[in-house]
Amino acid sequence: MEGEDFAVGSSLFIKTTLGDELEGQVLTFDRFSNILVTKSGPRKNIRLLNVNYIKEFTLLGQAEDPLDIRKCCLDFNSIQFREDLATRQAVTEAERIGVGVTTEAQSIFDALSKTLPVRWDKTVIVVMNEVRVSSPYLPESVTGGTPAANERVTKVLEFERKRLQARGTSQ
User: Fold this and answer.
1) For position 164, what pLDDT does the model report?
2) N or C, which end of the chain has less CB nearby within 10 Å?
């Protein structure tokens, strides 16, 4: 198939060698990688397709350049919201990673975080903003909080340490 057949802006109906049928407007064609990029549907779904998998196609028509900057409409509020959400999520994920702690300490933190709210305070795991688990992260290292909270954290800690030991001996 010739690259000229995939002119930017052309609308195509494509049948693939895998039996899929799709319709879309050509955004670009990369001759080096043999990748055709199309957009389709009301949500402007983008699809990358290796042209080696195109069995046949029909030219439905030619439209204006879909990437014409003068006709692009961007919802900056939506973009800003998505960026803020991604930034908050990245910060939250980064805060879950202990700095200067062992892999064992991080595994214990991760196990506690599955059932309880936890955060790092340097190398100390703070659970429910009251119970503190210090290195070497043994049941005896649990301090603070109510007796019930302290007992709950100790049980999860004991269970996770047993699980880590069992995993260590099975490898």
Assistant:
1) 83
2) C
Q: State the CB neighbour count (10 A cutoff) for residue 118.
A: 21
The reported pLDDT for the residue numbered 2 is: 54
Provide the 8-state DSSP code for 99: S
What's the burial of 39, exposed, middle or buried (CB within 10 Å: 0-12/13-18/19+)?
middle
Q: What is the CA radius of gyration of the chain?
A: 27
Buried b or exposed e, range 59-86, using 16+ CB within 10 angstroms: eeeeeeebeeeeeeeeeeeeeeeeeeee
pLDDT at 73 (0 to 100): 67
Write out the two tokens for 2: 């010739």
> Three-state SS for 137?
coil
- Position of tokens 């709950």? 152
d(CA 104, CA 97): 12
* Residues of the chain where predicted confidence (pLDDT) is lower than 50: none
Give the burial class of 133: count Cβ atoms within 10 A of its Cβ; 0-12 exposed, 13-18 middle, 19 or more buried: buried
Tell me what pLDDT residue 69 has. Answer: 65
